[in-house]
Amino acid sequence: MTDQRARIELRKRIYGTGDLSSIPIFGGGFINFGYWRAIPLDGDLTLEQRIASQQALYDLLLDGLDVAGKRVVEIGCGRGNGTASMLRRGPALVKGVDLVPEQVARAAGAHRDERLAFVQGSASDLPFDDRAFDRLLSVEAAQHFEDVAGFAREAHRVLAPGGRLAVTTFFANRTGTEPQIARLLATFENGLDLAHPIGAVLADLRTAGFVDVAAENIGEHVWPGLDKWIEQGGVRNDWDRNWVKVVARGLADYYLVTARRPVEAGSGA
């Protein structure tokens, strides 16, 4: 599916009325592939371990961002479980943004705290003032962004000088691999996911004005656990196990991207 409007409508159906978090590959209201580094994979996996893997992906980003006392925003917050989990780390405030109104309503209904709010909005047109946040993160949502360069510009705009960004999801390893990936994975063939090349993502962040732009490949702690969970029990028909083929062929992988908005000269920040 190549039409942008059709792709956006597909995502709204999948995440809205479809409520993707309800299928067995996910669990506990999260929607991510998980970070399995601390979870043993030599036996059957439990639902509790699957949920823990998804929280661990958030914790990986949050450990590096130091959100205590900071104003934080998550782009692509889904049902808000990961967003709400940040409150344990003592931020000044947390905002969650999602394109799908149903997800915003679910998040707002499930999580209530005076420091927490959820709003509907696009990653490339964020509904916030300039310099509104100190930290920005996005967990397994950037594969849906139609305009990564626009997201980078908006992230730079809403972050205060010295503010930091962390984004994690699966990206293409290089340009030109999307047709090969689409032949193996239906979510790329139908347009739900987009194969953004990691190099282009980093370039967009630098062009937007970010510094200290870096990418870490964390796939070794994502794919084995995910594939075992999909293969196990009743979830095997709910998601495509071809991810291991995509990774083995060097077409895509899972990355943690970090960057910083520089402090402006003479700002005193």
UniProtKB/TrEMBL annotation:
<dbReference type="InterPro" id="IPR050447">
    <property type="entry name" value="Erg6_SMT_methyltransf"/>
</dbReference>
<dbReference type="Pfam" id="PF08241">
    <property type="entry name" value="Methyltransf_11"/>
</dbReference>
<keyword id="KW-0489">Methyltransferase</keyword>
<protein>
    <submittedName>
        <fullName>Cyclopropane fatty-acyl-phospholipid synthase-like methyltransferase</fullName>
    </submittedName>
</protein>
<dbReference type="InterPro" id="IPR029063">
    <property type="entry name" value="SAM-dependent_MTases_sf"/>
</dbReference>
<dbReference type="InterPro" id="IPR013216">
    <property type="entry name" value="Methyltransf_11"/>
</dbReference>
<feature type="domain" description="Methyltransferase type 11">
    <location>
        <begin position="73"/>
        <end position="166"/>
    </location>
</feature>
<dbReference type="GO" id="GO:0008757">
    <property type="term" value="F:S-adenosylmethionine-dependent methyltransferase activity"/>
</dbReference>
<dbReference type="GO" id="GO:0032259">
    <property type="term" value="P:methylation"/>
</dbReference>
<keyword id="KW-0808">Transferase</keyword>
